[in-house]
Amino acid sequence: MIQTDRLYSADDLYMLRQGEDEPLRKYAARFSHEYSCCLDTDDRAAFGAFKSGLRESNFRYLMHSNPWNTYAELMKQAAIHAKAEYFNSKRSPATPALNPFADPPPASVPIPAPPQHSALIPST
Length: 124
Hints:
mainly alpha; about 0% strand; single chain; Non-ribosomal Peptide Synthetase Peptidyl Carrier Protein, Chain A; elongated
C-alpha cells in the first residue's frame, strides 16, 4: 500500500486548517494547491472548505458579512486581504497602523495658564 499526503476529495479539503501563525497568503496558496489536486471537487465545495478552515480573523468576519458567492470571488478577495496583511506586518514600529476605530491621540496643545487675578483693594 502506498501512502501519500495528497488530498483527493472535497472531504479531504475540509481537513485543511489555517495555522495559528500562518498568514492568509500562505493558507490561500496551500489551499489552492491542494484544491488543484482534487479533480472531482467543484467550486462550491471548495468555497465551503476554505471558509471552514479559516481561523478567527478580520477576513473571516468579512467573508460572513459580504456576498461573495463564487470560489473565484473568494480567492480574489483573499489575495487582496493577504496583500494588505503582508504590508501591515512589514510596517515598522515607528509608524503605527492607522485604526479608524481607535481613540484619537491626545492633543499636544499646551493648556493655557489660568488668568491671574489682581487683589481687589477697597477704595476709600
